[in-house]
Each structure stands twice: as C-alpha cells, then as structure tokens.
C-alpha cells in the first residue's frame, strides 16, 4: 500500500479539490484513499495492528449521535470537531505513539480532518482506517453498543 | 412356378422407400430422444435454478443470523454477563434477545442459543426456544472446531453452517462476543424450514421438503394430486458441508405447455422429415430415371427394334447417363456393328448360291414375296420366269459333275448378261433357274427377254474344249394375271416350264389348262419311282407270228402300268417322264430281267420263242447298258439270239454316231436289233444300212391304211422288198383283219403282230393262248 509517493504538488491539488468538493456539501464524495503522512489500513490490517501494537490508541472521530449505533471495542470517542493538539495530547501521550483514526466510512471526512490536525500537531505515527465502522459491520466483526 | 420379375424401377424404388422409412424411424427416434433430453434439460435447469434460489436463501439466512448475533452480543450488559460466566445471568440475556428477535427479525425462527467462553466451553443455554435438545451439550461441534482452529484475529469472523441435530436439519451461526478482545462465542440454532418453504412462491412451483429420514417438513398447498406426464419432478438434494443429507427439495413443475410445444416440434420435425424423404425419393427416382432407366430403356428399345428388323444392326445408339451406362452403350454399339458385319456375311451365305454367286432360292422367294406383299393387289405388274436346262442331266451323268458345274456357271453368267440390274435372276438348285422382272408389264417385253435367253443357250457352251449344246425351257407367268401370290406364281411358272420342256417349245406363257396335265405328271414321277421299286408295273406280251409258216416265233414285251388312281397309264405318257427324270435306266433294267426270266420259263415249257424289248433313245447314252444286258442274259440263262432290242428310228438318228457305237456292241454280243415304228421318221433304209439291224417293223399306220390307200400299200411293198434285199426281216404291226394278213403274206412279209391274232396280254393269258391257238400249237408241234 505504500506505493511510490506522487509529487507534493499533485497531492496538494487533490487535497484542495477534495476539500472544495466536500465543502460544496451538495453530495458526499469519497475521501482520498491516502493521507500524506498517515498509513491507511483496512479492517484486517487494523486487527493485525492491534495484535502487534497492543498499546495502539483507537480514536473514533464521529460525533456522539453516530456512536450510539455501535463502536469498535477499545476506541476513544473524539469527534473531529473537538480534535485539537490539546485534546489529542490527553489521549496520545507521545508524538511518536501509534494512533488510529476511524469514522463512519469512506464518505466520512471526519477521520481525515482529525488526522490532518494530528499531523499538524506533530504526531508522526498515525494510521487511518478509512473504511471505518461501515467496513467493520459489513465484514461481520463484533462491535459494542453503549 | 410363377416368377415375378420386378422392374429395376420398382426394386430400386422399394429400396429407396425402405431407406426413407428407416430415415423416418430415425427421425422419430431422434425426436423421442430429443424430447427426453429436453425434459432432462428442463429438469437440470430447474434444479440449477432451485440450487441458486436455495443458496440465496441460505446466504440471506446466514447474513440475517449473523446480523442478529452481532446485535445480540453488542450490549455492555451481555458482555458483562458473559464475563461473569454466570449461566443464569447469561440465559436471561439470551432469552431477552429471543424475544427481541421475534420482534425485529421475525423471519428467523430461532430454536436455541448457546454461549461458549473463550476456550469454547459451553457456559449457558437459552431457556427460550424449543425445550429439549440432547443433554445440553454443544451441538454442531464441527463449526466450533472450525473457529477454534483459526488464529486469534480470524476468530473475530462470524461463521454459519448447515448441520443436523440427529436427523433434524438446522442452520447454526456462531459470532464472537466482544470486539477486538474476544470474550466468548454466541451460537444460534435456527430452523431454516420457513425460509426454504418460501421458495415455492418465489419459484412459482409447488415444493415438497423432506428430511434425511423422509420426514415431510413442508408441502405446498398446490402440490399436484396426481403425478402425470405433464408434471416434471425436479429433486435437489441439499447437503451439509460434511456431506450429510440435509433437505431433499422436490419441485413439481407443470410442463404441459412444454410438452405441447415439444409435441408440436416433434410433429414439425416429422413432417419436415417426411417431406425431405419424399423429395429425396423423387429426386433419386428422377436421377435414376435420367442416368440409368431412360438410357437402359433406349438400349432395350433399340435391341427390340434390331430383333424385329435386322437391318437396324450397326446403327449407333446415343445415350446420356452414368459412366457405366455410356460404356454399356459404347460396347453395345461396337457389338452391334460387329454383329451387323457378321449378319450381312451370314445373310450373303444364306441367300447366295455358292456355285454361281447368284441369289439362291430363299432370296428369290423372299424378293418375290416382297414384291407381292408390299405392292397393292391389282397394281402389281411384273413377270416371273422359271427356267430349266434341257440336257443338263445327260451331260452331268456322262461328263461328270465337274463339267456340269462349269456349265452351270456359264449359264448363270449368260443369264445375268441378258437380264437387267433391276431384275433378279437366281439359281434355284440343280439346273433350275428363275428370274423376276419387276418392271415388265407386257407380254411383248417378256417375250423379247425369253427369246434372248433361249437363243443365248442354244449356242453351244464350251467347257474344257467340248462344245456342249444345252438348250433351255422357260415357263412364264405374269402377275396379277396368273396369280398374285408368290407360291401360286412359282407353281404356275413351273407348270408352264414343264409344258415348254415337254413340247420342246423354248418358252411358254402359263395357261390354266396346263394345270391338270402337269399335276398328273408331277405326281406320276414319284408314283413311277415307287412302281419300279415295288414292281407295280407289269409286262404284257404280244405274239410275233410267222406269216409264211403260220406259227409263233416270238413275243414283244410291252410295259403296262396300272396306277392306283389313274388306272391304265400308257407308256407314251410315262416313258418320256422316265426319260426326263432318269428313271428310264432302272426301268429298262427291270424290263430286261423280267422279260428274259419269262422267256426262260417258256423255254422250260418247250415254248421256244424269242422276246423283244423296246429300248429308249436315252438308253443308248447309258454307258452301263451293255453290262446290264449281259447281266440280264446271264441271270436268265438265255442265249443272246433269243433277245431282240427294238429302237425307234428317231432314237437312232438323234445321235447317230453314239447309236452306231452302242448298237455295234450289242450286235457283237449276238443280240438281235430291230427298228421300230419304221416309216414315221425321216430316215431311209439306205441310211439304216450302216447300222447292224436285223429287222425292221413297219409302223401300224401304214399297215392299217394299206388296204384302202394305194400309196401306203406301195410303201409297205417296197419296204418289204428293200429290207429283204438288205438281208433284214420285216415285221408288220397292226394286223387287224384276215385281209391284211393275206395281203402281207402275199407280199412276202416275214412276221406280223396285231389284234387279228392276239392283243397284248399278261404272261399267263399269253401262255394259254399259245396252247389254244393254231399258231401256238403248230409252233409247239414244230419245235417240240
């Protein structure tokens, strides 16, 4: 999944486009597959990551209204709107500690936005479960409800 | 036995028909096979469809059950209950979900729920659901083993499987309890029957659902009461992943429509096959007709034509068709032309006279028939000539066949020279020739030709240095005057020819008065032959009386023929016939023997008289004559001086040189010679002097008229005188009165014959006369 990275200009252009489309709000477009500086994973890679890094911090970037339908066990609720360098530092104690962000699914931009904030805050070991809760449910993995 | 010979057309047609019927049967069989195949395909495709549907149902059920399981384990209370491992607590949680499942996921018919801990130990069972499952032990353990054998992360995946509780088919689904940290496992036992049962309405086909123990779990309400051929049963045997029998799903689909369609199709195929067969048969027959039957027919017809008309031999037949037929025709043509050549050769041989190369009797008769049959009656105008050589037999007999054959060839050549191309001149056999003159319609024309022929053959013919005078007699007929049928014309021409020959006329036209005479002659020839063979002829004797001494000196033997039908036939009639046919030779031989035997008998009885026999002119040409006389004398044991041979004057004169030679030999033997019928010919006594003659017989015409006619009396007197002067005895014939006797006796005539003394009579009567008459008695007295 770590392909030869495209040039910075192209990536930033994509980002701008994606952002502008998202802000248009007329329809929910898919988020880009990759975020520069973060590692994208799917459900199985996520589960495998849990095995190899038991101290992995799982951050649920959804708002509370979405979380009540179910969440992945062990995840910490931190909606992207509340994500700041400060709120992050309360959950991820070190800038190089592993952390994973997820939200509802590929059309959900919350985890994307949260990761960008975290990157800006200087966190370097960030994983992105782009498929999110939607992929988790679809693949029949157990979840929790409050 | 009756043999039925079927024609090639029928037999081949029959074969084609049989082939066609076989084709039809094949079509029917194929149709049947295809129908079965179609039904099998229908069944297979239905089963495939059912399989798809069933697996879709299983898939749906699995997804729903997984959803339900995941939902059931999601609550924190459930988690805590599982973590507490308190069965009662867990069962309560399970029962709650039982109730909730009925509300939310009414489709799923839960049987029971089980909970296992991390190590797959059964820790709780729902109270709800069906009461008694065996021993409260784990069920469908294969699925549990499947999960336990997985790695930790993989265990997070829910699993679902068909399995059996005893004989009961169920679906079981296991989901992990917890999240990334597994706290246990939730197992749901589900009854799949309602979901499967729904397949009947989905597929629109009645369904029967049977378990492995044949228990009927479901049967559609519209399941057919009677299973007939319009119902197609498609059975799908559903099995568990462990290959255990699960459900047997039988669908009863109504295929009436398909059946109807199939039967329509089959009928259509059958009709097409029948049409094709008919078409093929027709085409085959047409081709057969064109390539074999027609050409064969042409050949057969030609063969029949040739059979009827041989002139068709050699004409080529052109046929089209198969290579074999064309070859056959070529061979046929070759053979035909060979046969044609052969036939013409044979025809030539059959219709040509080998000796002269002229047409023969068969061809002549054929041409004659052609002309009489093809030309309409009464329009036919033609002449027919029948020709016979006059002296051929003598030449053939005396000079041999070699000369005779040469002669015939020359005759043929002369005839062909005279007659025209359009005439047919043929050698009928022997010395008989005939000519057909198809363009001559007047007697004058025929006469000119006949005269030319007679003249041409009167000129001597030179063969090997000999000049042979042959002569010809021609009988002429004209069609239609003398008949319009070939046989009749030939017969009439024959009659005319005989007439010409007998009368020495050269040529004669047919006259119907000739018929009776001629027919008699024709039959007489064979009758005479038989008479000689069977000795049906008889000798009569007439005494020769010495006029000076009044006693008998000899007897003249006269031949008599008493014919069965015609009574007495005079020698004047049959002797010429005997001469012409060559019968004269055996006749003479017979007369000689007969007369001399009789003479010998008289001598034995002291009647010492001589015997006279009449000799034909033809006999003078008989080279065996001298031997015959010798032989007869020796056989009868009679001295030659007792035998007198009488010859007519004309017989001697016709071939004087030959006569002199023969007569000299006879004279040398000591046999007496007499000239008969003297005075009727043109010879003179002076001429006769050259011949060794012992007596002359004055013809009875002179003797009878002598008493009334002075000139006759002079002839008689001078003849007697002259004869005496030349040392010959004189016999007077025809003495019918005492006056004639007296006169002749006075003239010094030596001997006399006549009715006055005795008529000719059979030997017995003759002998009686001798004993009774004075002339006879005086002789016996004188000699005895």
Secondary-structure map with pairings?
The complex is a heterodimer of chains A (146) and B (784).
Chain A lengths: L7 H17 L13 E4 L1 H10 L4 E4 L3 H4 L7 E3 L7 H7 L7 E4 L7 H11 L5 E4 L2 H7 L8
Parallel strand pairs in A: 1-5, 2-3, 2-4, 4-5
Chain B lengths: L7 H66 L2 H9 L2 H18 L4 E9 L4 E4 L15 H8 L10 E7 L2 E11 L3 E10 L1 H5 L1 H5 L3 E4 L5 E4 L11 E9 L5 E10 L1 H53 L14 H29 L9 H14 L7 E8 L2 H8 L1 H18 L5 E6 L2 E6 L5 H16 L2 E3 L2 E3 L3 E8 L6 H18 L3 E3 L4 H21 L2 E10 L4 E13 L3 E3 L1 H11 L2 H21 L5 E6 L9 H12 L6 E6 H6 L1 H14 L2 E7 L6 H4 L6 E4 L1 H6 L4 H16 L3 E4 L5 H10 L3 E2 L8 E2 H10 L1 H10 L1
Parallel strand pairs in B: 15-16, 18-20, 20-21, 21-22, 22-23, 23-24, 24-25
Antiparallel strand pairs in B: 1-2, 1-5, 3-4, 4-5, 6-7, 6-9, 8-9, 10-12, 10-15, 11-12, 13-14, 17-18, 17-25, 17-26, 18-19
Features:
heterodimer, A: 146 residues, alpha/beta, Oxidized Rhodanese, domain 1, five-stranded parallel β-sheet, 6 helices, 5 strands, 38% helix, globular, disordered N terminus, B: 784 residues, alpha+beta, Beta-Lactamase, Alpha-Beta Plaits, 4 domains, eight-stranded mixed β-barrel, five-stranded antiparallel β-sheet, 25 helices, rod-shaped
